[in-house]
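Entry for the shared binder. Reason: the reviewer on the internal report wants the predicted structure included alongside the sequence.
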Amino acid sequence: MRRRRRLYIENGAIFPGGRPIIKGRAAIKAYWTLPPNVKVVEHKTMADSVIVVGNTAYDYGTFRAVNSRDGQTGNPGYGKYVIVWQKQRDGRWLMHLDIWNNSPAPEP
């Protein structure tokens, strides 16, 4: 069994729309664990800006996500996000704060 790559620092926090703040790696993992009949088909982020200041980076942009439920692919969802990253001693960048919300589809 492959070990899942950690994306958040131990005391990281996520800010899902319409919900309370979720803190800590274990609670974040539980939030992102999908039911067995739901799969991520696509999750694409498009960064508009990434600013690095020492061991902290600030990243914002937009995303497109598509899931399937029971094998049926749903319509794409769009949104915007802001992530604050922290550089770890081993050189990896992990998320400290992650906030996003939905937006209309971009204009062609």
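Summary line for the report: Strands lie at 8-15, 22-23, 38-53, 56-69, 72-73, 77-87, 93-103.
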